Amino acid sequence: xxxxxxxxxxxxxxxxxxxxxxxxxxxxxxxxxxxxxxxxxxxxxxxxxxxxxxxxxxxxxxxxxxxxxxxxxxxxxxxxxxxxxxxxxxxxxxxxxxxxxxxxxxxxxxxxxxxxxxxxxxxxxxxxxxxxxxxxxxxxxxxxxxxxxxxxxxxxxxxxxxxxxxxxxxxxxxxxxxxxxxxxxxxxxxxxxxxxxxxxxxxxxxxxxxxxxxxxxxxxxxxxxxxxxxxxxxxxxxxxxxxxxxxxxxxxxxxxxxxxxxxxxxxxxxxxxxxxxxxxxxxxxxxxxxxxxxxxxxxxxxxxxxxxxxxxxxxxxxxxxxxxxxxxxxx
Length: 331
Description:
CATH architecture of the largest domain: 3-Layer(aba) Sandwich
Largest sheet: 12 strands, mixed
Helix content: 25-40%
GO molecular function, one term: metal ion binding
CATH superfamily of the largest domain: Isopropylmalate Dehydrogenase
Distance between the termini: 14 Å
InterPro entries: PdxA_fam (IPR005255)
Order of helices and strands: EHHEHEEHEHHEEHHEHEHEHEEH
Keywords: Metal-binding, NAD, Oxidoreductase
Low-confidence stretches: none
Number of strands: 12
Cofactor: a divalent metal cation
Number of domains: 2
Number of helices: 12
Strand content: 15-25%
């Protein structure tokens, strides 16, 4: 049976409702999964009108109550947007709080085994902050609400997978966080996450930080002090890991199949590599949790919200990946 995948609507003022509606109108989405949106009915009704698609909204209380057929959006309606105050394309505490509640409800349902995965739409960090939500983004919310202290972020695009040693910290702080101990911990957890996704063959590569991976200390010592010693210890323990491999080559090599994944050392290193390859089909997978989460990897696009022109390619791809990996998370 096709997996049930929950889609929290995202920030109501952004493009999330529109790309969700577009993606659910596609035959390929219907063939892959049974999708349920968690959101606000009035906002979704507006989104359907904006994208001008012949879709009917079917309100339900539980995911299994859905009518999984053509032209139907199954919606768990939290009714948490005051349309008298709602302004599309603008940051607001109301929308930040609503977006958080869609995610929290989706996680609760997935944690209870009522869905196989969650595929998220964009949220806005400023709206979350305005609402007093104590998390900076999706990963932190999922970590807290699933009891996962440090979830792993993995990007997948085509046949390339990229993990991140550091995420939302300054570049200077990211350099300080590159330690032997942290590299060892992440390689072990990333390897386990890959096994959970059904990927057991191949070698993980660790990207270099400095030009040419430092040329043995000529251009920096992070590789000599942290990465080489970590790789040696991991290999001695039987882990299939290589590195450091120059960041100007390692992603190309992974794309060609030499490595099953790459451990990127900082945020932009891996983001640039994946998004340059295929921006719309770069999908974020939050790994190492008891539930599966995939996500579009673009923002709320407040500047085009309400125009109906936002592409749903990334949303469709996020649902595809959720359907692909969800059998490993069935409980």
